[in-house]
Amino acid sequence: xxxxxxxxxxxxxxxxxxxxxxxxxxxxxxxxxxxxxxxxxxxxxxxxxxxxxxxxxxxxxxxxxxxxxxxxxxxxxxxxxxxxxxxxxxxxxxxxxxxxxxxxxxxxxxxxxxxxxxxxxxxxxxxxxxxxxxxxxxxxxxxxxxxxxxxxxxxxxxxxxxxxxxxxxxxxxxxxxxxxxxxxxxxxxxxxxxxxxxxxxxxxxx
Length: 206
What we know:
This protein is mainly α. It is built from 6 helices and no strands.
């Protein structure tokens, strides 16, 4: 009875830690969005153009054919997704994981603010229809990936202190399985993105 209570208490503590970690990552991403918007507002966008392919700081993909636009969308998210995934296998990869989340937030915030500043209400409509829906899917995937990567990376770091905490093969398989599911969600997000873009071109642009 006592043992079962201890197990239940331990699970509740772990669950609360997971929730707190996710909320912290959401706030961290939000800070990146805000910082990117401030950069665009203060005219620093020209200095960030060299990172546009990674940070998604321009809207040029909206005028591309659907397959190129989908590839662009996947590229900009898969790069950061790959960083968080592989850094999860690195015992000191936590700073890189946090940097990936921050950089992607800066790119999205800069893109949304730039559209609004350069094109007014038209740009705000583009951001609302073409950037935010698919961006929410991508952010959800990246945040969950970052949370799992931080947990696994921390587990590896603790394994250097005691062998009892060394991750088993089941942990590795579960980690890869979760990221496989997240990759599927990201691919579905690309389909949603292209569906919205096609509707936008058919009903609004044309």
